[in-house]
Amino acid sequence: MFVKGYLIASALALAISFGLFLLGFPLDIAFTIAVVIGLGLSLFLGAFLIRIFTKPLADELGAEPSGLTNGGLYIGYLERALIMLLVLMGEPTGVGFLIAAKSILRFGEVKEIGQRKMSEYIIIGTFFSFGWGLFIALLTQVMIEALSMALR
Predict the structure, then answer these.
(1) Which UniProt keywords apply (predicted)?
(2) For residue range 79-110, what is the model confidence (pLDDT) as tens digits?
(3) In whole angstroms, how far apart are CA 125 and each of 20, 34, 109, 122, 151?
């Protein structure tokens, strides 16, 4: 699973690197290495930590949340990858739009008063995911700068 995940992260990193290159950003090995490492940390270590952190909360809910099998996992991957892309493009304010969009989409799921625990569970998981994604994206920016200087 870990090797498969890192291959996916590598493919995503190459796609992001190429996409940013098409937008006028320089393409270099330091950038690609930093993005591969950053995506691996953000997507897969993030998913692992979020699952561990929210497990006691999920147990308190009792029933499994309804929805697609591993839907939350894939949504987390996508949101953290988009956060990485936005931060590396120099548009971190776009993360606010992601939060707003996710809030609007999730609002319909938790309208009933009896679903307060589910609502809190979703909010905690979302904030943990967004916080982790932002932290690793900013760390990746620092890593890009450090690797660029070291490889020159």
Answers:
(1) Membrane, Transmembrane, Transmembrane helix
(2) 999 999 899 888 888 988 888 887 777 666 55
(3) 29, 26, 15, 5, 38
Angle, CA 1 vertex, CA 8 and CA 17 arms, to 5°: 15
107 Cβ neighbours under 8 A, 6+ residues apart = none
* 16-39 confidence digits (pLDDT tens): 666 766 777 666 677 777 888 888
Total domain count, the chain: 1
Give the other-Cβ count within 10 Å of 98's Cβ: 17
| Closest CA relative to residue 138, chosen from 43, 47, 42, 48 | 42
pLDDT in the model for residue 135: 95
Instruction: Print the SS3 string covering the chain.
Output: CHHHHHHHHHHHHHHHHHHHHHCCCCCCHHHHHHHHHHHHHHHHHHHHHHHHHHHHHHHHHCCCCCCCCCHHHHHHHHHHHHHHHHHHCCCCCHHHHHHHHHHHHHHHHHCCHHHHHHHHHHHHHHHHHHHHHHHHHHHHHHHHHHHHHHCC
